[in-house]
């Protein structure tokens, strides 16, 4: 085991750079934006985000209508961000599965992984590897990898916007995702060592 600062890295025999499968990031385009806006407006109405009291002044009515539209657009934007992050998490878990196959097929890498119930929390090492190499990846997009994986661990399939409260989309999304990831990662007993980033190469392809 190699130790650098507070981090521990597994020792890999030899000095070759190992090629891992590419991370294929699938997009999740939101179809029927008009339907999405209608659902967002229903959330605003049912959550009482704005007063439903009748407004007699036409100018105030226009202002309330503008605010409703702004809130609906904001909810849709937050949901699209959620969908994008979830898609990253789903792609990362699939990539980890492919990396497991690569490790199993190579005698010098096989001992580094323990068999356990999927998704084994020790596989967080692959997420850390992604973070270590993020600045050199083909994709220059900024994404919270831990949050993305946390969302995928929480939701096997992304729910429609109507299933979310406004509090989730506005405030709880990020904190819930991070909590899910760290809870999952902590299920593996120490020591869990990181994979040395200089010993691995892979590409990130946005599909």
Provide a quick synopsis of the model.
49% of the residues lie in helices and 8% in strands. By secondary structure, the chain is mostly helical. The mean pLDDT is 82.
Structure in words:
The protein is mostly helical and 207 residues long. The chain has helices at 33-46, 58-104, 124-133, 145-154, 166-185; strands at 2-4, 7-9, 18-19, 23-25, 200-201, 204-206. It has one domain (19-24, 32-189). 49% of the residues lie in helices and 8% in strands. The strands form three sheets. It has a two-stranded antiparallel sheet. The protein has a two-stranded parallel sheet with strand order 3-5. It is elongated and about 80 Å long. The protein starts with a strand and ends with a strand.
Radius of gyration: 22 Å
Stretches where pLDDT falls below 50 for ≥5 residues? Answer: none
User: For the terminal residues, how far apart are their CA atoms?
Assistant: 37 Å
Level of helix content? 40-55%
The helix/strand series, from N terminus to C terminus, equals EEEEHHHHHEE
Largest sheet report: 2 strands, antiparallel
Share of β-strand residues:
5-15%
Broad structural category:
mainly alpha
Shape: elongated
Task: Explain the layout of strands and helices.
Layout: E1 2-4, E2 7-9, E3 18-19, E4 23-25, H1 33-46, H2 58-104, H3 124-133, H4 145-154, H5 166-185, E5 200-201, E6 204-206
């Amino acid at each position: 085991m190699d130790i650098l600062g507070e981090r521990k890295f597994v020792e890999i025999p030899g000095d070759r750079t190992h090629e891992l499968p590419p991370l294929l990031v699938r997009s999740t385009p939101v179809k029927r934006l008009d339907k999405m806006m209608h659902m967002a407006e229903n959330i605003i109405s049912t959550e009482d985000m704005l007063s439903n009291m009748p407004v007699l002044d036409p100018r105030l009515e226009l202002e309330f209508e503008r605010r409703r539209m702004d809130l609906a657009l904001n909810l849709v934007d937050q949901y699209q961000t959620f969908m994008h992050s979830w898609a990253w998490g789903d792609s990362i878990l699939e990539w980890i599965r492919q990396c497991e196959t690569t490790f199993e097929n190579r005698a010098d890498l096989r001992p580094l992984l323990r068999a356990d119930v999927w998704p084994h929390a020790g596989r967080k090492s692959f997420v850390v590897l992604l973070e270590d190499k993020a600045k050199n990846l083909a994709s220059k997009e900024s994404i919270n990898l831990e949050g993305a994986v946390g969302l995928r661990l929480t939701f096997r399939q992304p729910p429609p916007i109507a299933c979310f409260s406004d509090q989730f989309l506005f405030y709880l999304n990020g904190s819930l995702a991070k909590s899910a990831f760290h809870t999952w990662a902590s299920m593996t007993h120490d020591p869990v060592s990181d994979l040395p980033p200089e010993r691995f190469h892979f590409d990130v392809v946005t599909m």
